Amino acid sequence: MHLDSETKTAIAEELEDVAMELANISQLPTATEADKEQYFKSTQVESARLVNIAKRYDYKALTPVTTWAHSNVLILKADFKQLAKNHETGLFSTWIELLAATLLQQDDELSSELEASLIDSNWKSAIDKQILQQLLNSLSTDKAESTTQDDSIEQLVILPKAKPASAQKNTHESSYRLAPDDDVHPELLEAFYLETPDQVIEVAKLIRTISAGDGNKETHQSAARLAHTIKGSSAVVGLDAVASFAHKLE
What we know:
This protein is 69% helix and 2% strand. It is mostly helical.
């Protein structure tokens, strides 16, 4: 099944949200039985969201994988110790993060990490090899059909509607030249070029602060939010490589 860039980005964003929520569950209190029950319910809700995401986007290769992952959560209803351990090790969230990244970046190394995460021996019920292969094949097929992604980007030059001929001549041959999709609504494009440059400047400042070792938790969160915003707005106007680059920053 081929997914267009807009669908891939939409799925990836929802997967990232589920992964973040699952990762946060490990911070919930577990002192009382009521706490433990809520801990399990929260995990169950998020794993059920995965199934709904796959079905909503009619991603047939993903649906059985999400159903399998959900069943692994249900199995642990009576084994809180193992449930908590799986959260602490990132078993429930890591594969989702890797899948989201693979949808956006189409990287062989990420696909290998995704496979390794799904066949981890800590899963209570092992994944069926056939449904695993179907998912991996869908990602490989998508990569083969894609003509816009390039992970060896040395420099990103975002071109609005046109550039003067002199400016084009001065662009270094190693630049990865990009332009938005032809069918993007003018108002969307105008908003992108109005808002995104300031967002890029701000996230660059935050990254410099973090690199200098002066960043706190709020700094990291602000940088991640801005990178997420840039990723989404870039994907909307068809700048997939920029969206992928912003995803890596995020």
